[in-house]
User: What shape does this take?
Amino acid sequence: MASNTLIRAAVLGASGYTGADLIRLAARHPSIKIAALIAKGHAGQPLAQVFPHLVSLDVPKLVTADEVDWSGIDVAFCGLPHGTAHAEIKKLPERVKVVDMSADFRLRDLGTYAEWYGGEHSAPELHESAVYGLTEHYRDAIAKARIVACPGCYPTAVLLALLPLMKSGLISSEDIIIDAKSGVSGAGRTLKQNILFSEAGEGLSPYGIGSHRHVPEIEQELGAVAEMPVRVNFTPHLVPMTRGELCTSYVRLAGKAAAADLRKALADAYATSPFVRVVEEGVIPATQHVRGSNYCHIGVFADRLPGRAIVVSAIDNLVKGSAGQALQNFNLMYGLDETTALEQLPLFP
Ligand SMILES: NC(=O)C1=CN([C@@H]2O[C@H](COP(=O)(O)OP(=O)(O)OC[C@H]3O[C@@H](n4cnc5c(N)ncnc54)[C@H](OP(=O)(O)O)[C@@H]3O)[C@@H](O)[C@H]2O)C=CC1
Ligand SMILES: CC(=O)N[C@@H](CCC(=O)OP(=O)(O)O)C(=O)O
Assistant: This one.
């Protein structure tokens, strides 16, 4: 690609949280021109009216998808609710590449999709060709894809930690317990009772116990590398903080493996991955260490229970968990350095 060619991007769901973070990051991307911002209820408003923190950007106002001249768009970033995205993506010209942050193209089996997402998929032919966008594990396929399905925020944190361990046979495919915590921005901007300040603040509550829709996604990916069905116990919790996600995975060691072997396998797996850092021994991953960045921090700890280990992974749900990973995938799809526009360090304290 010539260095002066700008890629014209549309953002669907530009009035939502993932859309806003995508715009924040893409606005500083040297190869992207933000050509269309698409909303539903907020259509017609200037972006800065919805997101005053983005007032310094020179971007088009929010419009509906029908108002866009798609002949002027090369790529669409989609931050629409799951269950809605597939129908909107189906309408796009075939020429337009898609980086989808919703769940609509993540599950390989459409029966599983219908079961967990409560409806039939309207674009099975597109679904067939979509590539699962866990960047560090599917770079080659992502680079060639038209539609990339970015993983859910919890699956991103869990799979970055566990996939290399499952692949190398260091952990058992049985008895995996994942205790996950997310900030309230993970629930999106749409008003819901459980994310009201007065109800989410000063408390900590599990939800989706035994039935969260990220379970089949995690099992799909772990099962693919284990080459056998894998079942996990996954319980998410809502934490009264804005951003961040921490997943603590309790695993059974295979054979004579020890925590040090797990640490080495992860360090080897991510030796050339700029955004995944296996923390030094003695350091404990925390959401504060990755806030606002595209990094994932992973730590491995011996368990005092024999034959078990604890793997902790932390991400920012809106960056590595959605918009940042989406931009990382975009970079691969266009043959760009995968770190482009994502190099900012975490915001701390
Ligand atoms: N929040 C997070 O941490 C993460 C979210 N995701 C996924 O990303 C997607 C977006 O999430 P998030 O940004 O949090 O959601 P928000 O609720 O913050 O935003 C949703 C956006 O979609 C638009 N929208 C809502 N309904 C429709 C519809 N029927 N047709 C067209 N547009 C519609 C809204 O427009 P308007 O407000 O103008 O009506 C808004 O721009 C979801 O699929 C979510 O699962 C993935 C990873 C992490
Ligand atoms: C706190 C909170 O509600 N989090 C969301 C996860 C958001 C996400 O990343 O997942 P999707 O992309 O699959 O929506 C949830 O548990 O549904």
About this structure: The two ends are 39 Å apart (CA to CA).
